[in-house]
Amino acid sequence: MTSIPAHEHAGAHGAHGHHDEGSYLSPKKTFMATVMSWVWTIDHKKIGVMYLAATLFAFFLGGVAALVVRAELFEPTVISADGVVTGQLLPNINIIKEGAVVGTITGNNLYNRAFSLHGAIMVFLFIIPAIPAALGNFFLPLMLGAKDVAFPRLNLMSWYIYIIGGLLAVWVLIRGGVETGWTFYTPYSSTTEYGATTAMVMAAFILGFSSIFTGINFVVTVHKLRAPGMGWFDMPLFIWAVYATAIIQVLATPVLGITLALLALERTFHIGIFDPAMGGDPVLFQHFFWFYSHPAVYIMILPGMGIISDVIATHARKPIFGYRFVAFSSLAIAAISFIVWGHHMFTSQGELASVVFSGITFLVAIPTAIKVFAWVATLYKGSIAFTTPMCYALVFLFTFTIGGLTGPPLAVLSADMHLHDTYFVVAHFHYVMMGGTVMALLAGLHHWWPKMFGKMYNENWARFACLLVFIGFNVTFFTQFFLGQHGMPRRYATYVEEFHTLHQISTVGSWILALGLFVHLGVFVASLFGGRKAPDNPWGSLTLEWDTETPPIEHNFHHEPVCEHGPYDYDDVYPPRCKPGEWPMPAPLPPGARAH
Amino acid sequence: MALSTRTILTRSGALIAGLALASAAPARGALNNLMFPEQVSSYAKPSDAVMWFVFLVSAVFFVLLMGLMGYFCLKYRRRPGVAQQRSVGHNTPLELAWSGIPLILVGVMFVWGLFVYTDMMVAPGRSEAIAVTARKWSWTWDYDNGGQSLETTKAYKVIAEAPIFAVPVGRPIKLLMHSEDVIHSLYIPVFRKKIDVHPNRYTTYWFQADKPGDYELFCAEYCGDQHSQMMAMVRALPEAEYQEWKAKLLDTSKVPLLELGRKLYITKGCNACHSLDGAPGTGPTWQGIYMHDVATTDGKTLVADDNYLRESILVPGANIVSGYSNQMPVFMGKLTDRELLALITLIKSLSETGQSEVEQILRQDEEERAGLEAASPEQTEK
């Protein structure tokens, strides 16, 4: 089995090859030159890494705000008969001017700021850009066998725009004390003293431009820069998912711009659009907002679904079951996502509209179900390795299935009358967003980490952290389904006695979850500084990004790669092109045995 | 063989099914309490039934998917010397089945939910109407006889006192709702329904309470600082008691002035922002504010005398105390002169300078009420 042609192929430009080109990570001659090589880089890999750093920092900020929110809810703020307030974690802060108390920012107000900060940062700064802009940027050209994305300078510009928008958003959120929630519903948002709505929507709009640029770049790259021999149906499903996402980004984000323009018109020229005092309609804002933000939900989840397809295929060594159904289901989700926004307004819009939107909403269930069934069917007769990425893919299947199945109760008109704006909704979208996208991001990060940084991580610690995250996540959010069903409304700084126990369980869960994520951080840091050198293809994957060195050279490939097989042809291409026994590889077959 | 395997199976199956049915009613009740609050409105039961259907279908799919996943993970885990096996890459009938069957199931959910929803939204013609006003951060219900609730409860620990709104049992009520400022949402979990309350149009919320009792009313649309304390209690009363309760609302002229002030303080929602004991809040405390100097946001210094208090209640935006924002609804035209006097008297009673005046006002008020009571029997006789 050592005389495998593929193995020789890997060795040819593997560990002992001499290269005229260094890894994209190798430092330049001076420190300043290295820094400048990052600042002015047009290398999609460096931009991907910069996106990764920025989005993970946003994740940290948003996560701290989430912990504050959960900590406040550990005890309800209650007033005793003689007026003594207890259980309030965030204190009332007196505004003192010239030595005299002239006003108060209440603890409730601080709580409202905390959840607004959490929501806005997580949505706009973390979850929308995290997978497409970080992992997508790094791997889309590699998986297509391209040297770079189609417009490398636009790519760098999109990162800077993201940073400008991100800084503005964080500044507005903290300095302006935005306490409107991430949804900025008018007229609350246009009348509150604290919420700098226009500035915040402006920040979201700038961030939207960054999304649009990335989206255009990806669409063109997928159309024009596929390796010779790679047809549409030879693309890895991650590419399909990122492609569908890019289309939504390009089409939906302009609506956010229109909304901003209307808000600005109203504020500067007093043209009544959303403000009822000027004859406007506040629900119109909700329509505009969700016309962007609902497709944005699929911007958040689709790339995650793509990662799961790739991770499951690689670590179970099976082609994805029903590849075309899975690929087209991404496009179907992208298409349907544009016509379901009204399901966010079942309690505020007309009955007929609600009926129509409820009906269409159910259609999203079908392509989503197709994907989940296909992933499970892919495991059939596979060779399943419980590596960290695979563990996260399985966690994804568990939590995302719960997230998906708790969608229909919210789409059922009568049930939504009860569940709308309660913790049931909070639990549902956290199961989809965190249980879906974040688990997929963690799967992808562990899957591609060796390729990105050339180092392996400690598999046992990573799996231990995965277990903590899984337990912590479910303890935190599963309880919230029960809270919602019993009528606990969301965005509450305090609550009546009957919800106390469930809130406490949920808060304890958030600590376990945070601990798990910190262990991951430790594992990654340890890997960067003390990790074992990663082989070129540690998982024996067949997609093209593993066909180059680890970490990749600056121009990705020494020669233009040629696509000779499908991304998941594990049944036909065996053994894979890498050294057997190097890492959790498929164990070698006994002498004389055939692969299939 | 007297008993074939098949007979045994059928008989034991029937026995299990019988037992399950026999224990179903109480068990179902207990299960329902685990999942949902009490069923009080006429449409709570059908609404829960749809949700149960959705949950059970979901549970079947979840168990199926996770069962298969677990089984595959166990059976096809990577072992030395064992490669994956070739299997079909796709199977159109199977893929169509797992697209089609969920489609049919969600179709059933949609139609069933639509029928229950129709019942929830279309109020019966014979409903009694109550006008509901929402504001940051309180609710007011105007009953069809012109009365407003003055009764409060201390049952919720998150807020010192909350208003009680009575409704009759077994008869449909239609709330005609509007908001004075931002969007709110009237939510009564035991009724299984919430409807948003808008500043620019009316929305309706009909219900029929089938059981007497006290039920929580929440605001479910985020509306700022005291969103979580914007609570009230819905008290479902038997018809006769309800009529009696409603009749008592009519006349506030007989309620002693200071007591009226305290009640209005709760029912008009002043308590959401203004404390009586000096505690900080969204608005300035009322303790000691009477005849005290106040600095306004536009740099003036005013004395909080009777006229300032009157103006600040009726048109709050005229002079805002520095450090606070203009969040208060306008009360112009919403309070009778006596109600306004009651609130001002309450504020006066909280500062030392006002004490002697308060005593005088209360004495006067007592005399007037005595006069009213003496006069009223004659009036009714006429």
Structure at a glance:
The complex is a heterodimer of chains A (596) and B (382). By secondary structure, chain A is mainly alpha-helical.
How do the strands and helices of this protein lay out in sequence?
The complex is a heterodimer of chains A (596) and B (382).
Chain A: H1 5-12, H2 31-39, H3 44-72, E1 78-79, E2 85-86, E3 93-97, E4 100-105, H4 107-144, H5 152-175, H6 188-191, H7 197-224, H8 237-269, H9 282-316, H10 323-336, H11 351-379, H12 388-405, H13 408-411, H14 413-419, H15 423-453, H16 459-485, H17 500-530
Antiparallel strand pairs in A: 1-2, 3-4
Helix pairs in contact in A: 3-4, 3-5, 3-17, 4-5, 4-7, 4-8, 4-9, 4-15, 5-7, 7-8, 8-9, 8-10, 9-11, 9-12, 9-15, 10-11, 11-12, 12-15, 12-16, 15-16, 16-17
Chain B: H1 5-22, H2 24-35, H3 44-75, H4 92-121, E1 128-135, E2 138-142, E3 152-153, E4 162-168, E5 173-179, E6 184-188, E7 193-197, E8 203-207, E9 213-219, E10 232-237, H5 239-249, H6 257-267, E11 293-295, E12 301-303, H7 306-314, H8 337-349, H9 355-381
Parallel strand pairs in B: 1-5, 4-10
Antiparallel strand pairs in B: 1-2, 3-4, 5-8, 6-7, 6-9, 9-10, 11-12
Helix pairs in contact in B: 3-4, 6-8, 8-9
Compute the number of helices of chain B: 9
Shape of chain B: elongated
The order of strands across the largest sheet of chain B is 3-4-10-9-6-7
Count helical runs of chain A: 17
CATH homologous superfamily of the largest domain in chain B? Cupredoxins -  blue copper proteins
Distance between the termini of chain A: 15 Å
Q: Please tell me how large the radius of gyration of chain A is.
A: 25 Å
Contiguous runs where pLDDT drops below 50 for at least 5 residues of chain B:
378-382
Can you write the helix and strand succession of chain B as a string? HHHHEEEEEEEEEEHHEEHHH
Instruction: From the 3D structure, determine the CATH topology of the largest domain in chain B.
Output: Immunoglobulin-like
In CATH, what is the class of chain A? Mainly Alpha
Structural class of the helices, strands and pairings of chain B? alpha+beta
List the strand order in the largest sheet of chain A.
1-2
Unreliable runs of chain A: 1-19, 576-590
Average pLDDT over all residues of chain A: 87
Rounded Rg of chain B: 30 Å
What is the CATH architecture assignment of the largest domain in chain B? Sandwich
Based on Cα principal axes, name the global outline of chain A. globular
CATH topology of chain A: Cytochrome C Oxidase, Chain A
N-to-C order of helices and strands of chain A: HHHEEEEHHHHHHHHHHHHHH
